Amino acid sequence: DIQLTQSPPLLSASVGDTVTITCRASQAVSKYFAWYQQTPGEAPKLLIYAAYSLQSGVPSRFSGGGSGTEFTLTISTLQPEDFATYYCQQLITYPYTFGQGTKLEIK
Amino acid sequence: EVQLAQSGAEVKKPGESLKISCKGTGYSFSSYWIGWVRQMPGKGLEWMGVIYPDDSDTRYSPSVQGQVTISVDKSINTAYVQWSSLKASDTAMYYCARTGVSDSFHIWGQGTMVTVS
């Protein structure tokens, strides 16, 4: 299986900050990569697919980047509703593994 | 509106069988892969497997292969995951989700909580 390592596991930030979450894959996944957001008690929500394509309805302050083995999710000008847990996922080889998650909390 | 509606919460005893469901509405059910994702209490997301409703092509994660069966009844636009003998370690929230323009999960169900105790 392809292993995904997210960093940091926990990120403290304030409303208005810009933050970046990184996900490293144990082998190259080209641009077959996605990011999800999950708030407590809710189902995950797709934010970014194909490494940098913004899912319909997702605010433009979310952006994805990277290719190969290193990917980033950047959230600009944090809003109160952005404090959640974020997961990366690779989609090049079954099983389509997820990262362990990054919890973004209010400082 | 595209929706996935999952069956309700279940409480079972170890050794019992269970089948939970996920009904798709508002789109061509046979045309998109549907997958299942497990989330144990307080833990992250775990990809279990996917099925293509049109031909029932199914792919499993090695971590669940042989432990669960993913199936579909396209006549009623419904996907399933089933266990023949539950364990306490199967206690989790189970989400179904549908692919979109990519293999990412673009649409998610609301989740089904399974408690085995």
Brief synopsis:
The complex is a heterodimer of chains A (107) and B (117). With 107 residues, chain A is mainly β. Chain A has strands spanning 4-7, 10-13, 19-25, 33-38, 45-49, 53-54, 62-67, 70-75, 85-90, 102-106.
Please describe the structure with a list of short key phrases separated by commas or semicolons.
heterodimer; A: 107 residues; 4-stranded antiparallel β-sheet; globular; B: 117 residues; 7-stranded mixed β-sheet; 0% helix
Can you give a write-up of this model?
The complex is a heterodimer of chains A (107) and B (117). Chain A has 107 residues and is mostly beta strands. Helix content of chain A is 0%, strand content 48%. Chain A contains no helices and 10 strands. Chain A has a 6-stranded mixed sheet with strand order 2-10-9-4-5-6, with no helix packed on it. A 4-stranded antiparallel sheet of chain A has the order 1-3-8-7, with no helix packed on it. In chain A, strand 7 and strand 8 form a beta hairpin. Chain A is globular and about 35 Å long. Chain B is an all-beta fold and 117 residues long. In chain B, 0% of the residues lie in helices and 51% in strands. Chain B is built from no helices and 11 strands. In chain B, strands 2, 4, 5, 6, 9, 10 and 11 form a 7-stranded mixed sheet that branches. A 4-stranded antiparallel sheet of chain B has the order 1-3-8-7, with no helix packed on it. The A-B interface holds A 1, 32, 34, 36, 38, 43-46, 49-50, 53, 55, 87, 89, 91, 94-101 and B 35, 37, 44-47, 49-50, 59-63, 95, 97, 100-106, 108-111.
Uncertain segments of chain B: none
* Gap from first CA to last CA of chain A: 35 Å
Largest interface, with counts of residues having CB < 8 Å to the other chain, equals:
A-B, 24 and 26 residues
What does the average pLDDT of chain B come to? 97
Overall form of chain B:
globular
Number of separate strands of chain B = 11
Run of helices and strands of chain B = EEEEEEEEEEE
Structural class of chain A: mainly beta
